[in-house]
Design a protein that fits this description.
With 312 residues, the protein is mostly helical. 77% of the residues lie in helices and 0% in strands.
Length: 312
């Protein structure tokens, strides 16, 4: 596949008639919608962790995790400016649109990365800080710079970065990595492929235009629909693990079972659909529902933990 030359793109962006970036542009670099999900899942990991944490320390840890997530987003937009300019979904991003230079995004992301990791280490423990540093590195370097442009399994492997926040939250409280936090990791890890592959089904032209090897581009829509259904079934089963392991209650079990069944139902609709407007609509509906699904699962876990004497 032929990609846009990164050096030429960076030179073009840097030498262009750039307007001064606004505060809003720098905030957009943080990917605030992604950041909000990161903070929410990290909070769930913290509340579920045994032992409890002082509220001030908990807030400080969440702030560090949020800033670390934002730093990852800024580094992603710095490196991906060339392909972001080619896709309708991303061409309005600050660097791709020329409102900020690549150097702005790189300096911003690097500074926030160092600050977030250092702050988390000083306020909680260095294992949690190390996990945050690894998460930033994995997303910015392993996923963004390598996997995203190299393999259709980019989302599967790269999903580890997005699945680590509850582990970091747990570790910030306990100082170690609990099995329970790894279960939360597994739920998000299994959720990521059907979530993003659903998006890629109705944004295939965008990814093809940028020469990105997303699964629908490389293997076709039919293979993608099969993979979505497979991962959805495994996810629905895995989401019941907190109940089986005893750190979630009846309410969570009922919600996870109903929501998981609905998730599989949406995936079946996608599996049976064709490459037409109805098929794109089915994929879009699964993508939208998947966001609600993950939020509801973690919201119920959080509510149950608080209801039995939450730790934060």
């Amino acid at each position: 596949m032929a990609y846009v030359d990164r050096q030429e793109m960076d030179e073009a962006l840097t030498s262009a008639d750039l307007g001064e970036g606004s505060v809003g542009d720098f905030f957009a670099l943080l990917k605030p919608r992604v950041m909000s999900l990161v903070v929410f899942t990290a909070l769930t990991g913290m509340v579920l962790a045994p032992g409890g944490v002082h509220p001030i320390i908990g807030i400080a840890a969440l702030l560090a995790i949020a800033v670390g997530a934002g730093a990852s987003g800024a580094l992603n937009m710095w490196y991906d400016a060339d392909i972001d300019r080619l896709m309708r979904r991303t061409r309005g991003r600050p660097v791709a649109a020329g409102r900020l230079t690549p150097g702005d995004a790189l300096a911003f992301g690097a500074t926030l990365s160092v600050g977030a990791v250092t702050f988390l280490g000083l306020t909680t423990n260095w294992l949690a800080a190390g996990l945050l540093a690894f998460t930033i590195f994995f997303y910015a370097v392993v996923y963004t710079m390598w996997l995203k442009r190299a393999t259709p399994q980019n989302i599967v492997i790269g999903g580890a970065a997005g699945a680590l926040p509850p582990v970091i939250g747990w570790t910030a409280v306990t100082g170690d990595i609990g099995v329970e936090s790894l279960v939360l990791f597994a739920i998000i890890f299994l959720w990521t492929p059907p979530h993003f592959w659903a998006l890629s089904l109705y944004k295939t032209d965008d990814y093809r235009r940028a020469s990105l090897p997303m699964l629908p581009v490389v293997a076709g829509a039919a293979a993608t629909r099969r993979q979505i259904l497979l991962y959805s079934v495994v996810l629905a089963v895995a989401a019941l693990a907190p109940v089986a392991m005893g750190f979630a209650g009846l309410a969570y079990g009922v919600v996870a079972a109903i929501a998981g069944t609905a998730f599989v139902g949406f995936a079946v609709r996608v599996f049976r659909s064709q490459a037409d407007a109805a098929g794109e609509r089915a994929a879009h509906e699964l993508f939208a529902y998947s966001i609600l699904y993950l939020f509801v699962l973690f919201a119920v876990l959080l509510a149950e933990a608080i209801g039995v004497g939450g730790t934060l």
